[in-house]
Input
Amino acid sequence: MYILGMESSCDETSASVVEMGDGVRRICSNIVASQIEVHRLYGGVVPEIASRAHIEAISRITYEALDEAGITLADVGAVAVTAFPGLIGALLVGVNFAKSLAYARKIPLVAVNHIHGHVAAAYLSNPALEPPFLALVVSGGHTSFYRVDSYTDFCEVGGTRDDAAGEAFDKIGRVIGLPYPGGAALDRLAYEGDPRAISLPSPALSGDTLDFSFSGIKTATLNYLNGMEQKGLAVSFADVAASYTDKIVKAITQKTELALKKEGMKTLVLSGGVAANTHLRASLARLCEKMGVTLAMPDRSLCGDNGAMVAAAGYFEYLAGNFANTSLNASASDSGL
Ligand code: KG4
Ligand code: ZN
Output
């Protein structure tokens, strides 16, 4: 069946048609209208501007997604929309648009948890992947471990107590002059520096916990940069990128090893925007090889927010009979509706 997936939780408006069925997981179209250029002027996402930009783009990209897939609304078996978590004004644009479409055309509607969407991106790139597995979602808003018992049952077993890894990358990226969002540029710059050049604290909390805290490493890096400036010493931004990335990647890898052991899982799914990070992908690949664990990741192009991941997650909600109706609301929080 064809699922129309809609995503508007942050700064990308996206619509996608995905064909899902027995042994079929196919992306027919995945249109992403990014607002990055607009928000770059402010060094971060401005919620009100995001909502307005979603409104301007959503109708156009929906019809573009249908056209590119070569289908019409009459062929759509379900409309799936991200309902939480995210920026409330941004989410409401997608939710209201999807509700109207579903109501007017009598198409079943399903609400999708954005985090489940990120994990579902891995199903599209790994045709044989199925639960149970351990999912690590690393994005601008999350750094969390989930035990995924079925396509729709997630249990959070660890996470960050303050900032997310993506936020931490973006923050230091901005301070060293990289354009917003700094994550991808910092990833590239890290190859040019020495990961042992600067001593930084680990974001992995000590002990048996699966939790992280990124505020310490952020502050230590800012203090290092300020200290060097005060002393009139030159800073190698490549060394900063390499040392910072190395500490974060090592911390995530260390806690992933612990999480896999604690949960007794033989498959790991890495997803979310930061799953595009090449250092993290390589480090987790080494860990999984060492532990005899299967690693499933979305293609790098499917790590950021997109409608295809929402459609894929929506398909499993549809199969589970979890339908929404015109009373569907959006929610900013992780716990949802
Ligand atoms: O999942 P996502 O698109 O949006 C949220 O749900 O938050 O994640 C966006 C985050 C941003 O912080 C961005 O800098 C980061 O993903 N990101 C990366 C890379 N590509 C995107 N971080 C590190 N390395 C990358 N290659
Ligand atoms: Zn996301």
Q: What stands out?
A: The pocket of KG4 (ligand 1) is lined by residues 10, 139-141, 166, 169-170, 181, 183-184, 187, 272-274, 276-277, 304-305 (CB under 6 Å). The CA atoms of residues 123 and 268 lie 12 Å apart. The chain is about 45% helix and 20% strand.
